[in-house]
Amino acid sequence: GYRIADVSVDGVSQGIVSSYTFTDVTSNHTISTRFEQETKQTVVVLQIGKSTFTVNGSSMALDSPPVIKNGRTLVPIRAIIEALGGTVGWDGTARKATVTLGNATIELWIGQSAARVDSISTRIDSTTLKVVPEIINGRTMLPLRFVTENLGATVVWEQSTQTITVTYQP
After folding, report:
1. Which strands make up the sheet holding 58-61, listed edge to edge?
2. Please, which pLDDT band fits residue 36 given cuts at 50, 70 and 90?
3. Sign of the CA dihedral 120, 124, 126, 128?
């Protein structure tokens, strides 16, 4: 879980090296290494209409493919959030999904254009009230960008391939 951040020989930085060769050794030398914890980054890649996605290059399955409704991507969020290390809960009575990742929690209700992000009411889409969580073919579908960005991830949309890349670094 750690990597070399810098190596110094006799107080002079040698950069990030994994070995160092002393030549013509005629006196004592000091070598020191500074380590840093590796950052864990998760990259999820999805494509509209496809029921498979990748997590750091490994293929996984969705129980329903991502779709575009009202200009926004809706996905069955559970597999994606769990791949990022989070959890998803469902309250069938209230028709509410609760998504938690790290210290962030988002509550979304089927058919409602507002959600709660860390207990604060927030519009799902600032440009239209039509973007709402929906049940499509028996699956709860949530707006991907709204959910993942509010959990601290970045989202990139590639129109030509209809591919979405979500990058999360805790």
Report:
1. 58-61, 52-55, 42-47, 163-168, 154-158
2. confident
3. negative
